[in-house]
Amino acid sequence: MATATDQLVGFGLVAFSLVLFVYYTLWIIVLPFMDSDHGIHQFFLPREYAVIIPVAAGLLLLLFIGVFIMFVTWKSRKHTKKSD
């Protein structure tokens, strides 16, 4: 069973993901249909960041996955040399 701390962390991650999803959805889908002088535009970044931020996050994710695979491969080769 999950402890109270685990449940709290899980709830926090789900809440953060929900807020991020709603913000991004409003930014990409709703904002283009509103007048550019509307006050809600002050809460959002310029529209070109809507592409730049996910691309940068995806590249960072690929980098971390690549480093993790490289580290695991390196460690497994190190252990096979010791056993020989």
Structure summary:
The protein is built from 2 helices and no strands. It has helices at 4-30, 49-83.
Would you write up a description of this structure?
This protein is mainly alpha-helical. Helix content is 74%, strand content 0%. It is built from two helices and no strands. It has helices at 4-30, 49-83. The longest helix has 35 residues, at 49-83. The protein is elongated and about 70 Å long. The mean pLDDT is 91.
Could you tell me how far the N terminus lies from the C terminus, measured between alpha carbons in angstroms?
A: 41 Å
Based on secondary structure, the structural category is: mainly alpha
Low-confidence regions: none
* Whole-angstrom Rg: 21 Å
Order of helices and strands: HH
The number of strands is 0
The helix fraction, in percent, is over 70%
> What value does the average pLDDT take?
91
Residue share in β-strands: under 5%
Please work out how many helical segments DSSP would assign. Answer: 2
Shape: elongated
Major sheet summary line: none
